[in-house]
Amino acid sequence: MDFIKILLHDTTWSFAIEIVIRCIVMYVLIILVLRFSGKRGVRQLSIFEIAIILSLGSAAGDPMFYDDVPLIHAVIVFAVILSLYRLTTYLMMKSDAIENILEGKPMYIVKNGLLIVEDIKQEKYSYDEFFAEMRQKKIEHLGQVKVALLETDGNLSVIPFSKENIKWGLPIFPDNYKQAEEHIIDHHYSCMLCGHTQLLNNLSHNCPRCDCTHWAKSSLKCENN
Ligand SMILES: [Zn+2]
């Protein structure tokens, strides 16, 4: 076993430089794809950390069992990817414009119990993804939500109303988030698209906020607080 061979195999300077260029191209490509997929980070990971994991994953794995892939290739890949990561975080720290382009801004999903429809459409998320997140935070309906903010890392921050400020709101559990079939006098109804909530004379009314005609029976009860 020759350690120099394991480390270098027949790597030439020109191929070492080629690896550097390949890394830069792939890193930029991965960031672009992640950024324009419309999704933000996955849970705690920003798109940059995902890019690093994707880039390094294969670079780390191949030299482990391909006898003609020398370690030096992985070392170069690691060095280049980490430098690019440091460079992007540095640029984002220095420039708000670059940060906004690469990472997006925190975005309001719910304000005052109402869904911010335009922003949600723009982010290509489905309602159910937000509803699921809110359900996990013990929210039953939007009348309980003062603010829900989608952070740049993909996490949803939810600020609930204090108990005495809870209003009628759009239910977010599947059993209740459905179009009302019969009209009940003196009951609140919530627009299924934007969360606007009011008393209704009939169910063919258009939502004054978004013009939608799908109404769900509003919820008020809240067993958790
Ligand atoms: Zn509406």
Largest sheet: 4 strands, antiparallel
Shape: elongated
Ions, cofactors, ligands: which are bound? zinc ion
Order of secondary-structure elements: HHHHHEEHHEEEEE
CATH class term of the largest domain: Alpha Beta
Quote the distance from N terminus to C terminus.
67 Å
Estimate the strand proportion: 5-15%
CATH superfamily of the largest domain: bsu07140 like domains
Whole-number count of domains: 2
Give the neighbour order of strands across the main sheet: 2-1-3-4
**How many E strands?**
7
Secondary structure category = alpha+beta
State the share of residues found in helices, binned by percent.
40-55%
What integer value in Å does the Rg equal? 25 Å
Mean pLDDT: 87
CATH topology call of the largest domain: CRO Repressor
The CATH architecture name of the largest domain reads 2-Layer Sandwich
Q: Total helix count?
A: 7
Low-confidence stretches at least 5 residues in length (pLDDT < 50)?
none
Membrane topology: Multi-pass membrane protein
Subcellular location: Cell membrane
Family: Belongs to the UPF0702 family.
Protein name: YetF C-terminal domain-containing protein
Secondary structure layout:
Elements: H1 3-8, H2 13-36, H3 47-65, H4 71-94, H5 96-103, E1 107-111, E2 114-115, H6 117-122, H7 127-136, E3 145-150, E4 156-160, E5 188-191, E6 197-199, E7 215-217
Antiparallel strand pairs: 1-2, 1-3, 3-4, 5-6, 5-7
Helix pairs in contact: 2-3, 2-4, 3-4, 4-5
